[in-house]
Amino acid sequence: MRLSSSLAGVWAAALSPLDADGELDLDRLVIHCNRLLAAGCRGISLFGTTGEGTAFSPAERQAGLEAVLAGGIAADRLLPATAFCDVPTTVAITRHAGSLGCPAALLLPPFYMKGVSDEGLFRHYAAVIEALGSRVLPLYLYNFPDLTGLTLAPELVRRLADAFPEVVVGLKDSSGDWSLSSRYLAALPDLDIFLGDERSLQAARRHGGAGTISGMANFIPGELVHLFGHGDDDAAQARIAEAVGKMVAHSFIPAAKAVVADLTREPTWRPVRPPLVEVDAAVGRRLTGALVETGCLAPAA
Amino acid sequence: MRLSSSLAGVWAAALSPLDADGELDLDRLVIHCNRLLAAGCRGISLFGTTGEGTAFSPAERQAGLEAVLAGGIAADRLLPATAFCDVPTTVAITRHAGSLGCPAALLLPPFYMKGVSDEGLFRHYAAVIEALGSRVLPLYLYNFPDLTGLTLAPELVRRLADAFPEVVVGLKDSSGDWSLSSRYLAALPDLDIFLGDERSLQAARRHGGAGTISGMANFIPGELVHLFGHGDDDAAQARIAEAVGKMVAHSFIPAAKAVVADLTREPTWRPVRPPLVEVDAAVGRRLTGALVETGCLAPAA
Fold first, then answer.
1. CA–CA separation, B74 and B103 (whole Å)
2. Which chain A residue shows the shortest CA-CA distance from B86?
3. How far is the C-alpha of B243 from the C-alpha of A55, rounded, in Å?
């Protein structure tokens, strides 16, 4: 059923290109978004983990979203990550995204404190939703335990979805843990469950998952769109899993930028914001070659 | 030598009292700061971990600092925590603190990404310092691995202090790991090392530590000021360690607010911002009793 969600599909968790001053390169970002949409992506998630979202200020993230819209990307193709650790900033940035027509927003839990209770996480999300008031929009919770030190328990997501129907409409799971992903899929059949781990995309689809919000989609969008569209293609899933394996041997975000730099022949794609550190162009070349070997990428012309 | 630092002493990592709407209760905060200063604290660290800093927006933190100053607390008694995950916000809030006359600021590393390199952390802090430019102020790095998932290696702190002398002037270590704290003390004899763990205050002082930035100081400031002032008092250190043990059996911040609520007979001290959850008044009463038993608190009149 969730496959029928209007937001189902492959969303690219877009990388954030930088200019020579380390500022967001808006022209390049629009070109990148258009390329991903042309490859069949349902849309673009801006300023998530892959987009180095936490390295950009609230004002930079608002300006970036506005610029992408001004560049001609339709608002219903944009799913921005809008969470900060504090409620007021989260409310402001989420409301801004809604006011511009984004169909939903993606919300991490507050990620500084550790060992917090489900009750505390419930209160945080409830406070955000109540403060949004009549300007609320559909929200996807974002589970990424490796980076937040917190796991959004399926029971917590259930409680939020029941308390705020048509607001808490789904979840992105970047746990990389299929046993947890399958628990979300089983416990939340009415919600859109997106996986961050492309290695489980086929399995998730078979269990009613709504798709993926994917860092790999920055450079192999077509393969992911194919797999999600066809559902049953073990060979495609195996190719994708092999490609993921090549990438995660490196720090993913700098490696992904280096791959895009190599594919586009634009070395200025490589820089990242601190605390990340860019990788050499040679790493990008090697990785592109490895991705071609998996069959996920066509050889360069 | 670092004991001669102008900032040496006991700094209270102030709790942030809330009003009935969950907003910062500025009047109560000023009263609390004055009480801590009257007890002999060198000063107050605002909006650190104990102050639930990450639950307040940049604007709230700026307004809070301004209100405390307007309430009559001298700027040289205030050491605000001013770090956010992104460089632009960190620069803005740090610059604001310096413009108001604060003698220094306390800076967490960017705490979303994990597994980042020392080079990446160096670049983050360097970017902050370079953007502050001529308006830079002395900075204390803030090591809290349990909450950030990152450890500031002594070699990284050394590199930053050498690259930015008279800017990177010290560190607060909340690792709770004396073996790491003693490495900082040994490797950085020219820097002010403050401990977050009051159980090691006497040991730190013996090894030249500059003092503590302490959550316990919210309710046992006198005992901490005594120990730091006298240096050698095993019995006082033992009492403090026992008091810490009583507190950390609970979630520290809600427990600390409940203790202050009990001591001041002001139950409105108890609420916390999500994702924390307040504890019952009975917990505060029990803990106050336990603190009296340790000898750190005088029995209620």
1. 10
2. A55
3. 39
* Residue whose pair of structure tokens reads 């002493």 in the numeric block: B9
Predicted TM-score of the model (pTM): 0.97
> pLDDT tens digits for B171-198?
999 999 999 999 999 999 999 999 999 9
Q: For a pLDDT cut of 90, what percent of chain A falls above it? A: 96
The tens digit of pLDDT for each residue in A185-195 reads 999 999 999 99
Please judge whether A275 and B113 are an interchain contact, meaning their C-beta atoms are less than 8 angstroms apart: yes
Cβ neighbours of A116 in B, within 8 Å: 275-277
- Contact between chains at B117 and A85 (C-beta distance less than 8 A): no
> Distance from A155 to chain B by nearest Cα, in Å?
17
pLDDT at residue A113 in the model: 98
Q: Which residues of A touch B276 (CB under 8 A)?
A: 113, 116, 120
Mean local confidence (pLDDT), B135-147? 97
Identity of the residue in A85, A92, A146 whose CB atom sits nearest the CB atom of B55: A85
Provide DSSP, B81-132.
B---SSHHHHHHHHHHHHHTT-S-EEEPPP-SS-S--HHHHHHHHHHHHHHH
Q: Do the Cβ atoms of B196 and B213 come closer than 8 Å?
A: yes
Please indicate whether, in this complex, the C-beta atoms of B123 and A58 are within 8 angstroms of each other. no
In this prediction, residues A271-292 reach a mean pLDDT of 97
Chain B nearest-CA distance from A300, in A, is 32
